[in-house]
Design a protein that fits this description.
Order of helices and strands: EHHEEEEEEHHHHH
CATH superfamily of the largest domain: START domain
Number of strands: 7
Helix content: 25-40%
CATH architecture of the largest domain: 2-Layer Sandwich
Strand order of the largest sheet: 1-7-6-5-4-3-2
Shape: elongated
Radius of gyration: 56 Å
């Protein structure tokens, strides 16, 4: 029998895989390797479906390079349930594909013999089972020969940005008890008006009814002049002191 399978990898990479028994064992479809670490890599159980039969064989195989660049595969197995057995002898040749195809063609050629349950199927069913097995085996070799992808660069961690309108505003350093209403520490309107009138001087009404001044004003006595001047300057000062005392008293009561 002869069978050909195309694999989209280079011949150099396939040669590296075929030279490694561990990678060859990983490419055999459905191979259940023995748990014993001392067993050969290409040993264990293999289930094969031939026609309407599913036969499990227990055996081993060997892969060896040949001088012409090809590889020889020799294997045998016995039925797990039954007295039948099979033997297989294959050669694998690597041929570079055409220029418009990036890959390699694996050309399998060889012979096989069997007895037991496998003989109950037709020759066409046996040949079809072997071809399917070789195609899956070639695909496994191609996956093992694919170059490992380069590790992706780690993505930068996202920086959490808090919107300006969601930023918490720290509380004021002043206690609520220490807050003083600005309106409450202001001078009341009546007292402010009184102080303003006192500080500015006499009102327009007082000016209208005031006695004449200047050279037409009568000369006051010296004692009365000094007394009125003193009172005129003392009144605004007293109003300021009184307003300040009222403000301070209200502020102290508020703090209490």
């Amino acid at each position: 029998m002869e069978h050909e399978v195309f694999v989209p990898v280079t011949a150099d990479r396939l040669q590296q895989v075929l030279s490694d028994p561990e990678q060859v064992a990983g490419a055999v479809p459905g191979l259940q390797r023995d748990a014993d670490g001392t067993a050969a890599p290409l040993s264990g159980r293999l289930k094969v479906r031939v026609g309407g039969h599913a036969i499990t064989y227990r055996g081993a195989a060997r892969v060896a390079p040949r001088g012409d660049g090809s590889y020889a595969i020799e294997g045998e197995g016995v039925e797990v349930r039954g007295g039948g057995s099979v033997k297989l002898s294959l050669t694998v040749r690597l041929e570079s594909a055409e220029e418009d195809e990036a890959g390699t063609r694996l050309v399998f050629a060889g012979t096989g013999a069997g007895e037991g349950r496998v003989t109950e199927a037709s020759a066409q069913a046996v040949e079809g089972a072997v071809r399917r097995l070789l195609e899956r085996f070639a695909e496994g070799l191609g996956r093992a020969a694919e170059p490992e992808p380069e590790p992706a660069a780690p993505e930068p961690e996202p920086v959490e940005v808090t919107p300006v309108f969601e930023t918490e505003v720290p509380p004021s350093s002043f206690d609520e008890e220490d807050d003083v209403d600005v309106e409450e520490i202001l001078v009341p309107p009546a007292e402010a008006a009184h102080a303003r009138r006192t500080m500015i001087g006499r009102s327009a009404e007082e000016v209208d009814h005031a006695p004449p001044r200047g050279r037409y004003a009568p000369a006051p006595a010296a004692e009365s002049l000094s007394t009125s001047a003193t009172l005129r300057w003392a009144a605004p000062a007293a109003a300021v002191v009184l307003a300040s005392a009222i403000v301070a008293g209200r502020a102290l009561r508020r703090r209490r």
